[in-house]
Every structure is written in C-alpha cells, then in structure tokens.
C-alpha cells in the first residue's frame, strides 16, 4: 500500500507542473486582450406593419409575468429607424419579475454589415427597463468577438405606445486578440 501511494504521489508531482503550464497558457494576458466600445440601437417593434417582436406565450395574469417574446429586431448605427442597419438582435426576452419591473434578455447581436460583419455578441441579463439606464452582460461572442466578455449599458431613447421602443446599447467588450 505504501509503495502504491508513493507511486501515485510521484506521478502527481511529475504531472502537476505540466498541468499548471497548460492552464496558464489557456488564458490571454492583459496585453493579448482587445477592448472595443460599440454604440448601436435596437428597434423593438411589437405593433405596426413591420413587427419584429412577437409574444409566443401570454401570461394568464394582469402583470404579464411569464410572457415570452421572440425577437428579430433591427440593430442600427443611430436612433432613427432609417439609420444604417448593422445587424439583428435575435432571441427572446421574458417578463421575469412578478411586479413586471424587468425582462430577462437572452439574444444574439448578429452583425450583418459594417466593421464587425460576420461576428456575434451574446447578451444576457435582467433588463430593469423602468430605470433610465441599466446594465446587462455580454457573455460570449463569435468571429472577431470569440470568447468576449463585457457589459452593455441600455437606455430607452424612444417609447411610443403601444410598446414600440428604440433602445441604445453602449457595449464595452473585452476579447482575446487573434494571432495574425
């Protein structure tokens, strides 16, 4: 038994430096991280002739708690709906607070035009939409933003009844810089 333990200990001691080296090399250093700030506008249209947000479940209560909305919203350079489209916000949001004070956002910003064309950012978090400014997480990305992390400050810049909105996204994203 003692010989077996010594053999196991020797094996662990031999492998440990290799494991430490591999784990430390899988993380980018500060010098290898890029940071980008993107300002864009999401146009969430629940009514009208060009609807981009559709409730797929409706709550059986007066607060809307539990309602799920599927979105394919235009993402533009500016707040005007005629502004240049840079992508789409595709996914869902859920009325997730009993008092109807926030939505839980889960969607991809799919860049279809411009500098970031072909890349995506994954947005997730509680949108406390009654607040003027609020934050949600950027949890990942693809393309230029592979392994991205960051946050988005959201601000409602236009809200016209019944519930069409233009939301400003001020995104701060950190991501590993790809080797050339």
From TrEMBL:
<keyword id="KW-0964">Secreted</keyword>
<dbReference type="GO" id="GO:0048046">
    <property type="term" value="C:apoplast"/>
</dbReference>
<dbReference type="InterPro" id="IPR044859">
    <property type="entry name" value="Allene_oxi_cyc_Dirigent"/>
</dbReference>
<keyword id="KW-0732">Signal</keyword>
<dbReference type="GO" id="GO:0009699">
    <property type="term" value="P:phenylpropanoid biosynthetic process"/>
</dbReference>
<keyword id="KW-0052">Apoplast</keyword>
<comment type="similarity">
    <text>Belongs to the plant dirigent protein family.</text>
</comment>
<dbReference type="Pfam" id="PF03018">
    <property type="entry name" value="Dirigent"/>
</dbReference>
<comment type="subunit">
    <text>Homodimer.</text>
</comment>
<feature type="signal peptide">
    <location>
        <begin position="1"/>
        <end position="28"/>
    </location>
</feature>
<protein>
    <recommendedName>
        <fullName>Dirigent protein</fullName>
    </recommendedName>
</protein>
<comment type="function">
    <text>Dirigent proteins impart stereoselectivity on the phenoxy radical-coupling reaction, yielding optically active lignans from two molecules of coniferyl alcohol in the biosynthesis of lignans, flavonolignans, and alkaloids and thus plays a central role in plant secondary metabolism.</text>
</comment>
<dbReference type="InterPro" id="IPR004265">
    <property type="entry name" value="Dirigent"/>
</dbReference>
